């Protein structure tokens, strides 16, 4: 089934607004007064919409000479450098960027391993960051590995 003009507008907005299906639907279908989230998510499950998004992403990657893999490698290098320099905040930021890159910044429940889950070193990094995040939320983790030294261990504002 071909893409219609409203779907094309939705896809364009979705790809430029940080992948927010709700806002993309709201802008592509301005006369719709409710159900933006549900309808946006529904559109993302349609085969023709998924195929068009994949086609445009591939075109964008070729044009920019950037791929998910190249960005992943840059973020992994940033994480490694941050860890070498004892900068946990920078390491967390790099880990979060990797998570966003793979769409893992959304709250989901995964009950078993699937081929789409990260494996190896990437999985270890993300698991470690997740543990650190949970400890911080619980208030049981130090702000840095060198807590207690002068000028260090202060919580970030944000």
What features would you describe in this structure?
This protein is mainly α and 158 residues long. It is 62% helix and 0% strand. The protein folds into 2 domains: 5-64, Arc Repressor Mutant, subunit A, CATH 1.10.10; 68-138, no CATH class. The chain has 7 helices and no strands. The longest helix has 19 residues, at 120-138.
Mean pLDDT: 78
Strand share of the residues? under 5%
Name the poorly predicted regions.
144-158
Biggest beta sheet attributes? none
Number of domains: 2
Count of β-strands: 0
Distance between the termini: 46 Å
The outline comes out as: globular
Alpha-beta classification: mainly alpha
Give me the secondary-structure topology.
Blueprint: H1 5-16, H2 21-28, H3 36-45, H4 47-64, H5 68-84, H6 88-101, H7 120-138
Helix pairs in contact: 1-2, 1-4, 2-3, 5-6
Outline:
The protein has helices at 5-16, 21-28, 36-45, 47-64, 68-84, 88-101, 120-138. With 158 residues, the chain is mainly α.
Which properties best describe this structure?
158 residues, mainly alpha, 2 domains, 0% strand, globular
């Amino acid at each position: 089934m071909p893409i219609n003009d409203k779907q094309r507008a939705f896809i364009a907005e979705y790809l430029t607004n940080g992948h927010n299906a709700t806002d993309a639907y709201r802008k592509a279908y301005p006369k719709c007064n409710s159900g933006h989230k549900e309808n946006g998510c529904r559109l993302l499950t349609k085969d023709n919409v998924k195929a068009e998004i994949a086609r445009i992403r591939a075109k964008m990657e070729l044009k920019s000479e950037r791929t998910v893999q190249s960005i992943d490698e840059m973020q992994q290098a940033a994480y490694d450098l941050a860890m070498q320099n004892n900068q946990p905040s920078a390491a967390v930021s790099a880990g979060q960027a990797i998570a966003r890159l793979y769409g893992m910044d959304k709250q989901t429940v995964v009950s078993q391993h699937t081929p789409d889950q990260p494996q190896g070193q990437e999985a270890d990094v993300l698991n470690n960051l997740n543990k650190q995040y949970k400890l911080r939320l619980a208030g049981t983790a130090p702000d840095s590995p060198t807590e207690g030294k002068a000028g260090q261990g202060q919580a970030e504002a944000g």
